[in-house]
């Protein structure tokens, strides 16, 4: 593969309910940061797939896109992973970007790897950081070995280099008044043809807890031990006007049914003023989701727990005794 033929950074910009999602705007911002670190000043291109897309161009320009590729057709009005992934792959074949960023969303997690397979290249999923090395190599940082280490993933021999990232890890950038060059692209895609027919779209209506705007998050981990213990965290959170968040094991145990409150690589990244963590070891898969939290206070009975390395206040002790005392005091 002649990798020197590949130039520019593409960001797959996802739409939902008539809007470009925040995750995509953050990735556009991330692309502008990567661009500033690359000596050949590559173009940042937003790739949008769907129908009636003209409405998005101003917003994408103002968030960092130099160019926008619109793949606009009635056949993309309903989301179909086969169509979208093939269209993204065809865009890469035509425009030859060196880097492609995709949101680690339900759609992105289908489209990104499928396009990577079509293109016979690699994709680093759920990156927590993206960087450019001094020699210009794109570095995709991913937690590995159960979150105990952060690994640098490189894709030196294939293009494009593809990465996905969750919402909340990258930062939006504003380029007021920046107008991007808009191009229409109509790839000849087949997907699974008429083997798939969308009959109806049924949206699951479930009450969701949002950690996005929460100022205080009481987070519980596997150390909580029981459902009854979890209820104490709920009481504490409500007394503090906060919400509860969880680690993967606490969710797997079923102590909370709110999947959307799992914090970390496969969950959400949060920015509360205060994070209060109880019975959490501090695996990188979790702590990457609290990198931008304000004050981090952790309680763990193990004085050597890694969570203490990222905490402002450390309490070595039994979580339950501390939560009981806090509830009593409040
Ligand atoms: C691909 C992948 C993605 C992942 N994504 C995520 C993710 O998004 N979010 C996430 O959270 N995890 C994720 N994980 C799992 C992650 O690697 C860790 O296993 C998990 O974060 C550990 O959760 P924990 O700290 O609750 O449990 P543990 O690691 O079991 O830690 C429990 C802690 O509780 C302490 N403890 C026990 N009893 C008490 C007590 N009475 N009082 C005080 N402290 C006590 C212990 O000392 C221990 O430190 C992922 C893993 C993989 C492989």
What are the main properties of this structure?
330 residues; alpha/beta; Rossmann fold; 7-stranded parallel beta sheet; 5-stranded parallel beta sheet; 8 helices; 25% helix; globular; binds flavin-adenine dinucleotide
Describe this structure in words.
- With 330 residues, the chain is α/β, with parallel strands linked by helices.
- It folds into 2 domains: 3-195, HUPs (Rossmann fold, 3-Layer(aba) Sandwich), CATH 3.40.50; 216-329, Rossmann fold, CATH 3.40.50.1220.
- Helices cover 25% and strands 25% of the residues.
- It has 8 helices and 17 strands.
- The strands form 4 sheets. It has a 7-stranded parallel sheet with strand order 7-11-6-1-4-5-12, sandwiched between helices. Strands 14-13-15-16-17 form a 5-stranded parallel sheet.
- The protein is globular.
- The mean pLDDT is 94.
Write the layout of secondary structure elements.
Blueprint: E1 9-13, E2 15-16, E3 19-20, H1 22-37, E4 44-50, H2 57-62, E5 67-72, H3 81-95, E6 99-103, H4 108-119, E7 123-127, E8 129-132, E9 138-144, E10 149-153, E11 161-165, E12 181-184, E13 216-220, H5 227-239, E14 243-246, H6 248-252, E15 274-278, H7 284-287, E16 295-300, E17 313-316, H8 319-329
Parallel strand pairs: 1-4, 1-6, 4-5, 5-12, 6-11, 7-11, 13-14, 13-15, 15-16, 16-17
Antiparallel strand pairs: 2-3, 8-9, 9-10
Helix pairs in contact: 3-4, 5-8
Bound molecules: flavin-adenine dinucleotide (FAD).
């Amino acid at each position: 593969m002649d990798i020197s033929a590949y130039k520019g950074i593409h960001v797959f910009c996802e739409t939902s309910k008539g809007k470009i999602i925040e995750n995509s705007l953050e990735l556009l911002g991330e692309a502008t940061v990567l661009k500033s670190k690359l000596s050949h000043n590559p173009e940042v291109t937003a790739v949008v797939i769907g129908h009636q897309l003209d409405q998005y161009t101003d917003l994408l320009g103002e968030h960092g896109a130099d160019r926008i590729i619109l793949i606009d057709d009635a056949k993309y009005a309903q989301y179909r992973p086969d169509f979208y992934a093939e269209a993204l792959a065809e865009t890469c074949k035509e425009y030859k970007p060196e880097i492609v960023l995709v949101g680690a969303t339900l759609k992105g997690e289908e489209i990104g790897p499928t396009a990577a397979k079509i293109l016979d290249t690699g994709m680093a999923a759920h990156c927590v950081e993206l960087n450019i090395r001094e020699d210009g190599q794109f570095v995709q940082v991913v937690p590995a070995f159960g979150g105990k280490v952060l690994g640098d993933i490189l894709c030196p021999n294939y293009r494009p280099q593809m990465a996905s990232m969750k919402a909340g890890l990258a930062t939006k950038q504003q380029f007021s008044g920046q107008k991007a060059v808009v191009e229409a692209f109509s790839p000849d895609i087949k997907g699974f043809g008429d083997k798939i027919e969308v009959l109806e779209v049924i949206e699951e209506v479930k009450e969701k807890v949002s950690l996005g705007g929460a100022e205080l998050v009481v987070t519980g981990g596997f150390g909580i031990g029981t459902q009854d213990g979890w209820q104490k965290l709920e009481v504490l959170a409500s007394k503090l006007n906060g919400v509860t968040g969880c680690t993967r094991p606490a969710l797997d145990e079923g102590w909370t049914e709110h999947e959307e409150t799992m914090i970390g690589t496969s969950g959400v990244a949060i920015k509360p003023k205060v994070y209060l963590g109880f019975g959490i070891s501090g695996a990188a898969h979790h702590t990457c989701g609290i990198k931008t939290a304000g004050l981090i206070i952790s309680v763990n009975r193990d004085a050597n727990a890694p969570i203490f390395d990222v905490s402002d206040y450390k309490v070595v002790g039994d979580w339950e005794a501390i939560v009981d005392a806090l509830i009593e005091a409040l």
